[in-house]
Write a structure and sequence with these properties.
This protein is 35% helix and 27% strand. It is of the alpha/beta class. The strands form 4 sheets. An 8-stranded mixed sheet has the order 1-2-4-3-5-16-6-15, with helices on both faces. The protein has a 4-stranded antiparallel sheet with strand order 10-12-8-13, covered by helices on one side. Strands 7-14 form a two-stranded antiparallel sheet. Strand 3, helix 4 and strand 4 form a beta-alpha-beta unit.
Length: 392
């Protein structure tokens, strides 16, 4: 029986796992129920289980049955487990039961796919060497990958290469994107507190208006990517939050701006940070106020190694259900903390389309999103096939 045939047999079971995770979402570093289920299932299948890396992370270890040349080689397969702190807008039976929590990025599906691959690999062990199954917490902005690495992930479970996948509602089911080099952006976060002088709304000349100051700062920041960075280099500055004021008739003493910066190249990242800090400081001072800037580098760019991406692409192309592998697409300006793992060991991060005729097309991080369960056997097949290919 082929890998895909076995996965087709357990497709309904994988769907049950996935929908159970979706109904019980847990945000970063709080994935206690999810990691408990993962560890329990791995143990039931005779897989060696290690818990607690990065807080709620789980690592399963499967050793192949063949002791041939290359049996000391090991690879890692990674899936993220966390949900987002947002309300779900769906009404189907497996909608979130946890208020303010939602699997809006498909990590429930990623976890279910890796579990499916684990179950099949534990049954067959048709490879030489070791595969480490990495179930990671806190991908959504909290750097769970780095937390696992800081806890000694690759020292305790050395990997010659590491592989991961992400669903993509932007691509049809059956299409895969495998980009060599930079696949996703570096992400930085900022908080800016603008300070002025409060006054009555009838006498703005007696104060220093931080709301007007904030408007000037936002306008100036928007000109950085369009006017101070090469137009052929990608950079985005996004303001996600504005906080200030308690009354309709009082100009606030402070206004806070929060947001993110996204870039693809290290030199551009350095340049944008420099311009950001200078622009905020000088614009605030020009309005008579001041600025406190907290600028934090979060995730590096996700960079796929050439050789590993070539092999991952070839494997994906051979998977039943994959109709096309795109190699020359554009990088995404979203971020991914799998980048920390790729800084430590070569590997590849691929995107698997999930948009069907009537499902799977709602964008991620949207209240109406749901993972397309038709992708489960395709993604799990790829993960299991990578093990048999890389540890042949």
């Amino acid at each position: 029986m082929s890998i895909r045939q076995r996965l087709d047999e357990i497709h309904a079971e994988m769907t049950e796992w996935r929908r159970d995770f979706h109904a019980h979402p847990e945000i970063g570093f709080e994935e206690k129920r999810t990691s408990e289920i993962v560890a329990q299932k791995l143990g039931e299948w005779g897989i060696e289980v290690h818990r607690g890396l990065g807080g709620t992370g789980v690592v399963g270890v499967i050793r192949g049955k063949h002791g041939a040349q290359g049996s000391n080689r090991a690879i890692g397969l990674r899936a993220d487990m966390d949900a987002l702190p947002m309300e779900e807008g769906n009404s189907f039976a497996h909608r979130s039961q946890n208020p303010g929590r939602m699997h809006a990025c498909g990590h429930d599906g990623h976890t279910a796919m890796l579990l499916g691959a684990a179950k099949v690999l534990a049954e067959t062990r048709n490879f030489s060497g070791t595969v480490h199954l990495i179930f990671q917490p806190a991908e959504e902005g909290l750097a769970g990958a780095k937390a696992m690495l800081d806890d000694g992930l690759f020292e305790k479970f050395p990997c010659d290469a590491v592989y991961g996948i992400h669903n993509s509602p932007d691509m049809p089911l059956g299409q895969v994107k495998a980009l060599t080099g930079t696949a996703m952006a570096a992400i930085d976060y900022f908080s800016v507190i603008l300070r002025g002088r409060s006054s009555h709304g009838a006498h703005p000349q007696q104060g220093i208006d931080t709301v007007t100051m904030a408007a000037q700062v936002i306008s100036a920041l928007n000109s950085i990517p369009s006017r101070q960075v090469d137009a052929l280099e990608s950079s985005i500055i996004s303001i996600g939050q504005i906080h200030g004021g308690t009354s309709d008739i009082v100009l606030p003493e402070t206004v806070e701006l929060r947001g993110s910066v996204r870039t693809l190249k290290a030199a551009v990242r350095d340049r944008v940070e420099e311009l950001f800090k200078r622009t905020v400081k000088l614009t605030a001072e020009a309005q008579g106020g001041s600025a406190e800037i907290d600028y934090r580098r979060a995730y590096p760019a996700t960079v796929n190694a050439a050789a590993e991406t070539d092999r991952a692409s070839a494997c994906a192309a051979a998977v039943n259900g994959v109709t096309h592998v795109e190699r020359d697409g554009r990088p995404l300006l979203a971020g991914e903390d799998f980048a920390f793992m790729l800084e430590r060991t070569p590997g590849a991060y691929l995107f698997f389309g999930q948009r069907g005729a009537d499902k799977g097309g709602v964008p991620v991080h949207n209240p109406g999103y749901d993972f397309n369960d038709d992708l489960l056997p395709i993604g799990a097949n790829y993960l299991a096939a990578m093990v048999e290919q890389e540890l042949a």
